[in-house]
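Ticket #4471: structure output looks truncated?

Reporter: J.K.
Steps to reproduce: submitted the chain below (469 residues) through the standard prediction queue, then opened the result file.
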Amino acid sequence: MKKIIVGIGLGIVFLILLLVIALASLNKIITEEFIVSQLERNMNLRAEVKKINISIFSAISGITVEGLKLTNRDNIADNALPLNERKLLESALISIDNFDFQLNFLAILKGEIQLKKLILKNPVINMVMYETGGNNLSKLFLPPKIVEGKPNEKVETKEEVVQKQSDEDDRPFSVKDLPLSANLKEIGIQLGNINIEVQKTNQKLNIDSLNLVINSIDIVPDDLKNHNSIKADFNFVLKIFSIESKEEKAKLIFKSNALVSPFVPETGLVNPIINYKLTIIKDSYLEGMAIFEGITNSVPLLKNAGIEPKGLNEKAILQNDVDLEVQYSNGKIKFLQDSIFITKNYDLEIKKNSSITIPSNQHEFFSTLKLSKSESDKSLENLKKIKVDKPETAEIIDSILSKVTKEDRLFLPFKSSGNLNNPDIVLNIEIPSLMDSIKGAILNKAGDEIQKQLNKNLPGAGDAIKKLF
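Returned output as attached by the reporter:
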């Protein structure tokens, strides 16, 4: 028994010694200067770190880095100017309040850095999607051309070293460019905020309250054929702002559990085609969609038939969750299944193979719109009033109603295409003009009456005159 107690005591002492050694190693290796140096040596950016917190348990629980900022690379980063000689960054493309990361404990004892866990908290990202394609962030994660004042040996050609860095470096990112040799078990974002400017359309988007956890990572850059998958749980709020007034016109609440293959095995480039399963949460809303304005104001087919759709331009709040399966490729989102959005005023169905290209705002929607019973009654009020006031039009109006109603609700299949802010709307139904139909009915009735009178007074003449009507 005494030997067991002594053994346990020695084990505890040994563990404490390991922790002390690890802590000493961490304090020596992981400094603000080290973090900035590693980032700037391996990525095409300038970095800033406010503070690093390391405790006696950091070797096990993790390390916290406060006040991380990343922005475009400059001469200061190229020449590795010491932190105490730098002015603080006033703004950044990416700023993070703090992030926690966990290292491999045994690797620390060997003087090695192996990343096991990385959680970014309250990051703010400012992205610009260029009119010509690409964005302002991709270049940050490429190898730098100059390191510590000298050409970077990782850059393959002299031309790449000498060439002035472009604001729109469009070289594709490859997983094989990643500077870290990491066996990540978990990576995530808490309460992220991403501001997006789409140059081609001057559209402003915001992704708020982004929570992302990737807790199953199997990425081996040299063996992507067998190790190329990640499992991600995420949720966020997408806000869309009006181009003219800059007011919020939509707020869509998303959640997803996705299993994706992020890279192309042969090249290591980001996979250009990725499928996602998403859910848009109840209480998300849209307001003043140009598609609905087009249906309300710009479709003569409905006006000529005496139909005035109501309730389309009001705020439409989702009454239940909507499950989506989409495919993303080069800024284009394609619907892989029919999806129905149910609101108080209408049900909007977006059919399979509909698509929208985010950078250009171009879209092609194959859709159906079914108004609620109350809004349908308002929309068809004038048409039904004519039927009551002029019973002779009942047959014509019933014919029109049969083409535009389903379950006694206004039902409009349509195609919308072009720029989402100024769409082209085509109704996929044939509705006769109300006035033309009534005129035709009057002429037919008059023709029948004339034929009747002619046959009475002049047999055979009615058949000849019938051709006139």
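Triage note (M.O.): checked the attachment and the full token line is present. The chain has a mean pLDDT of 78.
Status: closed, working as intended.
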